[in-house]
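Re: Re: ligand-bound prediction request (bumping)

Still looking for help on this. To restate: I need the protein modeled with DQA bound, output as structure tokens. Inputs repeated here so nobody has to scroll up.
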Amino acid sequence: MSVEPVVLIINGPNLNLLGVREPDIYGRETLGDIEAWCGERAEALGLAIDFRQSNLEGEIVTWVQEARDVHDGIIINAGAYSHTSIAVFDALLACDLPVVEVHLSNLFRRESFRHHSYVSAAAVGMICGFGAHGYLLALDAMARLVRTEPP
Ligand code: DQA
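Reply:
Sorry for the wait, this slipped through. Here it is.
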């Protein structure tokens, strides 16, 4: 039986299109590539991952609610819902788990409507601007959060 901490990695709307969607902004890696990289990094860190994507706000809210009982932390790229969804924000506040926010692009070099994220106010921290590598940085951060290890 596995005793590894399990991290839920949630990807929001349009992230299923990675690889073909605005590659100059989001990179050429597909979400499948990112999932594979995360799996390898998680294994090296002694973590397990549950990697998901949804285009539906309510589905993401439900996943966050359910995570409370079955996961040890949440890494979330909520896509455009980061900037709009009080429902995702409320669910993250209620889940009682460490949350790390990730974005592929540097939000602060983009349109002003991307500069505010509701998710940030529910997260321990946020990583943005490093492309797909940001997910690995988020896993490194999460490994420490779930184990309360020194840096
Ligand atoms: C994104 C940034 C968001 O503003 C955008 O709506 C996305 C992707 C990112 O990973 O850079 O869908 O979350």
